[in-house]
Amino acid sequence: MYFFLLSYSILGAGIKYIDDAFDTKVFNKKIALVIAILLSVLGAYTMLINPISATICFAILCGVLIKGKVDNYAFISALILVMALVFIAGVQFLILPLILLSAAAVLDEVGNDYIDKKREKLDENKFVHKFAIYFFGQRWIMKVVLLFLAIFAIVPAVFFVAMICFDYAYIAIGLYSQAKEGTTNTVVIKKALTKFGMIFK
Fold first, then answer.
1. Residue 187: predicted pLDDT
2. Residue 96 near residue 55, CB atoms below 8 Å
């Protein structure tokens, strides 16, 4: 099961690298394309060896597809390769968890987009606003659904932890990207890392 903690961390970090290579051009696009191919193989294998992992990964794909987040040729190439490998291998999914997690993934994207648009109008000194920024900014809906599925023994708890690894590896690369771009100062990084650490307290 430790494999999933590592693979989800790599997937989260790699996806953010690709994202910022094309959106902010902080990273090299050629390297991003190579990473996309490698992530496709890793992602397909992660789905192939376990139907629960397949369900979670496919739900994430559904969320980003429905919200139109597959917006560059590296992601498109990776998606096509993953779908081809999954189809050829005949990967199995858990239908009810897939529906719940896909809906959660879409809501996460909706909430994250809303927070990004309204962030300047939100007052972080107010608990409700601060909670909303953290909860939706860190895409916690899917993790909460996974937590409940784990509590009711529908999925092993390791996948809840793996999803946390995925998201916070994504966040860590985002922080590095911002620092590399020069848009983030030390105070902002420290503040973001404090939020990062909240999950481990």
1. 47
2. no
**Which carries the bigger pLDDT value, residue 128 or residue 155?**
155
Determine which of 41-50, 113-122, 142-151 has the lowest per-residue pLDDT on average: 113-122
For the beta carbon of residue 165, count every other beta carbon within 10 angstroms. Answer: 20
Q: Phi/psi zone of residue 93: left (φ > 0), alpha (ψ -120 to 50 degrees), beta?
A: beta
- The answer to whether the beta carbons of residues 101 and 64 sit under 8 Å apart is no
Residue 71's pLDDT band, with cuts at 50, 70 and 90, is low
Measured between alpha carbons, how far is 169 from 133 in angstroms, rounded to an integer?
18
What count of Cα atoms within 13 Å lies in the side-chain half-sphere of residue 85? 21
- The one-character DSSP state at 49 is T
3-class secondary structure, 51: helix
